[in-house]
Amino acid sequence: MHPRERPTTRRQFLIRAGTVVGTLAGADLLLSACGGSAKSAATTTGTNGVLMGPGGIPLARRDHPVTLPLYSDNEAIAAGMDAEKGPLQLFNWAAYINPATVKKFEKEHNVQISITTFENEDEAIAKLTSGNGTFDVWWTTVDLVSRAVAGKLIQPLNHSYLANLKNVWPALQNPYYDQHSRYTVPYTVYTTGIAWRTDKVKKAPADYANPYDILWDSHQYAGKVAVLDDPREALAMALLRRGILDVNTEDPALVNRAQKDLSQLTSIANVKVNTNDYTDIPSGSTYISQSWSGDMAGAPEYLPKGVKPTVLGYWRPDVHAETQNDMIAILRGAKHPVLAHTFLNFMLDNQNGLENFTWNGYIPPLNSIDPDKLVSQGYIPANLSSTIVRQSDFAKGVTIDALTTEGQALWQNAWSTFKAG
Q: Are 250 and 335 in a shared domain?
């Protein structure tokens, strides 16, 4: 089953992430349950104004990359060991890996893979910290990595097992949130923009001096307009519309103004708040929606019979688009750590990454994938070429990163005010 056909998708996981880690209790759970303490979970401002997160680890930013610490009681495995017999235990979002890719790994390495899925972050963190689950490999996000490291939930990687890391974009071989890829390898990349039905909307985003204004000029489409049900994404869009590029700001004046701007959409267009862009735009139940690039790349499959993909449009800025990537890590308690490294290396293989992309719709950051050929090769319709994420797009983008505990509360309160009407 395609991931977009699941009742809860990878994208819906992300919306819940903003709520769960937005509270002090949620932020502390991952750290304290893994060996930290509530005291060490407090966030402070370090030297030169750098924001500090749990365990005294600085919060990573594009202009302040962070090398995650190593600990003497949580070391990487030794080199040169044989892979265990398995089964390899994967802990992943529901339907976020191609079943054919899994079967290929099993066949090549003569092992079994067992996949346990989670539908939201609450469930995932509870299971990881309860001791009730024994997993080897975990799919995670930028905002959780430093907490997982501080709590010693994930183990450092031994790069001697990861020869295929060289296949990855240079910026993600040495990512700002995990310098030297000490704990993670990248999985997929995406942008956030605006989707619309070209046959229903008179003016495209690019027809406006400020393309984001299409949402605030949508009174004639009332009831047919949506923003993503994600506090970080929706509020970040409101900030970007105002020219505020710091989408991780903890300035109450900026965040509260973004909330007020979003709230205008309720009176302007009776805005919907959901993550159904991938079905609602194709069906015509929504004409304009904030959207993720991977969702719109797969949207043509949801068009009614006889409707051509040319009715779909996707815009995101050429510069300062919101961009991000997901990643994979190996859990500290992994019973099959060598096999887990082998699996990570397998997913970084050029052909395996491409095959996985053809199923889940989100592009892996592999040098071998030529973005200029994805249309001619039939992976993406020409009119949706804007959903393609290039290395240059990633370099010019802005990223949603971890906040302090106080910042999380600020953003969540603004979102709650918007949602309350």
A: no
